[in-house]
Amino acid sequence: MSVSIKDVAREAGVSTASVSRVLSGKPGVGKATEKRIREVIKQMDYRPNLGARGLVQQKTGNIAVVVPRGSFILNNPFFSTVLDGIAQGIDQTDYNILMSFTSTQQKKLLEKKSVDGIILFAPRIEELTLESLKKIGLPIVVIGSYVEDSPFPCVRPDDEDGIAQAVQALYQLGHRNIGFINGPLSSMHSINCLNGYTKELNNLGLDYLDENILELDEFDASKATNEISTFFKEQKITGVVCASDYLAVGAIKAATTVGLSIPEDLSIVGADDVPISSFITPSLSSVHVDLLGIGKKAASILLDMLLGKQIENKEVVFKMKYINRATTSSPKE
Amino acid sequence: MSVSIKDVAREAGVSTASVSRVLSGKPGVGKATEKRIREVIKQMDYRPNLGARGLVQQKTGNIAVVVPRGSFILNNPFFSTVLDGIAQGIDQTDYNILMSFTSTQQKKLLEKKSVDGIILFAPRIEELTLESLKKIGLPIVVIGSYVEDSPFPCVRPDDEDGIAQAVQALYQLGHRNIGFINGPLSSMHSINCLNGYTKELNNLGLDYLDENILELDEFDASKATNEISTFFKEQKITGVVCASDYLAVGAIKAATTVGLSIPEDLSIVGADDVPISSFITPSLSSVHVDLLGIGKKAASILLDMLLGKQIENKEVVFKMKYINRATTSSPKE
DNA sequence: CTGAAAGCGCTTACAG
DNA sequence: CTGAAAGCGCTTACAG
């Protein structure tokens, strides 16, 4: 079909072994021979078949980025920013990125040998069981938290502290009635966020009120605008912390819908400080974390595992930092 | 190393040929034999090596999604929505998606045989030459416009008409001084948009004024807020059309910065109607196009090409439709 | 219905 | 420095 290493070898009058050595930069080829081979390669426009190489080297050269609930997560800038980091982290290596967004694709990935390692966006417990993941015996790095006793290295924001910072920031602005909009508790992320919220209320000597908390089915505020509006109408909170920026954008919309102006009537804080947050109007107060760094770190850990290195640090937690922007102010008198 | 087809064959007491036939659902295996083989496969947790299969079938089983300037584009929801469509379009097939965001990755992709086909997000002329693309001899589908005489099938929004609709919408609201914020003219997309703008001005009998147009270096308004602010200060326009929603979000910010309130002082229209546009506050008037459909269509065309079908329709253009939301109104008296 | 064997395009000891 | 040969894990005519 297309030109193979044999064609190159024949054309250059050498063995395939020599061509292979030149290709992979291995020593043991004379200068003149190498030059000739390189010329033939270029001239014939030879492109090595990665599958064949992988076959003998017992690796695929691909790493997978697995995104459960892709259709939804794709619209969340959190994902694209972290992905950008992963791409940068992988860039200088020979690996390619295989992406999986749907459960069908995940199946394809897990039921065949098609990748050497996996970066997994924190799945829900129902979605991918520990067992099935362990069984495939591939290096896996999780982004965000997965389950309590996960054996896989994980890199994640310090959500608990981040949300605590947000609560504290509102407190310092003078708020005493602080609400919380969370995702579903089937996600470890939500659990961590909730912990941060309750702990900080406690620290501050504020009462914990069930009615101050709204738990959404999904981190998708666009579907939940009505729910959030109702929540706001029934509350006497003056500030609200959201478990993600995306949720916060939804909260802004919901608040506006019910006639609350921001930040005068209601202060809103997001989490993760996605790039667009500083960019929308009004710019969103949020808790910043180095999302790009998280992606890069996940990539570098996986790369280390692929090299057979032992990972000492099973959990890399990125510090978060509150950033005050235009959606927060002191409450009205 | 891990379990291969040979191990399965031995364990089941059959030849590898039979195992292979079962695996690929080919006929010619007795019921009982098949049952036994399936059991062994499951029991040994056998996973076929895609590289080996590809080697004999002369294909990789991967298709590439190539995103030039990934770091930037990743933050643009346009991309993630279309990608979602691609993922859905590919979902029922055996193909995996290989993603390439950086020029390094593109090189890896193009210099090796690692994919069977490519979906290419419209590159700039400087980035990927027609020549280099043609040379690799793979089926390629372009999303958005590439170059005038590109031989590759392309699926894209009808930008020209979309921008024209936006101009007309503003006109009908009473605007007579309508500005335009565009991306760089090295992109066919920008050229189409500009055409739509000028043509519609002409239709409407409005004067074309150079000073009413701002051409940005990149479709990245976050870097250009200052530039846009300056632009607004120097203009007497009452409405502005932007070549993308992302640009429009930047325009909102810039306008706010210079003390213009929206839509009272300035009406703003985006393009592409990215999911978050309807969701931000104020919700963005935009020109809608079925981004998901674009992704799906691109995938289905590529799939057809991979099947060897002849593509009659070299260009699939998606209709756009103006949607009035909260960033537009009649100009102040 | 079933299997032996060739071959896909590479790499890698091994021998010289 | 160089090459002949084995082998990676599959599939696919071919023969029975």
Proper CATH architecture of the largest domain in chain A: 3-Layer(aba) Sandwich
Strand order of the largest sheet of chain A: 2-1-3-4-5-11
Number of helices of chain A: 13
Per DSSP, what share of the residues of chain A sits in E-state strands of 2 or more residues?
A: 5-15%
Characterize the main sheet of chain A. 6 strands, parallel
Q: Share of helix among residues of chain A?
A: 40-55%
Order of helices and strands of chain A: HHHHEHHEHEHEEHEHEHEHEEHEE
CATH overall fold name of the largest domain in chain A: Rossmann fold
The structure class of chain A reads alpha/beta
Low-pLDDT regions of chain A: none
Written overview of the protein:
- Two copies of one chain form a homodimer.
- With 333 residues, the first copy, chain A, is of the alpha/beta class.
- Chain A folds into three domains: 5-48, lambda repressor-like DNA-binding domains (434 Repressor (Amino-terminal Domain)); 62-157 and 291-318, Rossmann fold (3-Layer(aba) Sandwich); 159-289, Response regulator (Rossmann fold, 3-Layer(aba) Sandwich).
- Helices cover 42% and strands 14% of the residues of chain A.
- Chain A contains 13 helices and twelve strands.
- The first copy, chain A, has helices spanning 5-12, 16-23, 31-44, 50-57, 70-73, 77-90, 103-111, 130-135, 159-172, 188-204, 225-234, 245-257, 291-306, and strands at 62-66, 96-100, 117-121, 140-143, 154-157, 178-182, 213-215, 239-242, 267-269, 286-288, 315-318, 321-323.
- In chain A, the strands form three sheets. In chain A, strands 2-1-3-4-5-11 form a six-stranded parallel beta sheet. In chain A, strands 7-6-8-9 form a four-stranded parallel beta sheet.
- In chain A, helix 6 crosses helix 13 (291-306).
- The longest helix of chain A has 17 residues, at 188-204.
- Chain A is elongated and about 90 Å long.
- The mean pLDDT of chain A is 91.
- Chains A and B meet through helix 4, helix 6, strand 2, helix 7 and helix 12 of A and helix 4, helix 6, strand 2, helix 7 and helix 12 of B.
- Strand 2 of chain A pairs antiparallel with strand 2 of chain B, so a sheet runs across the interface.
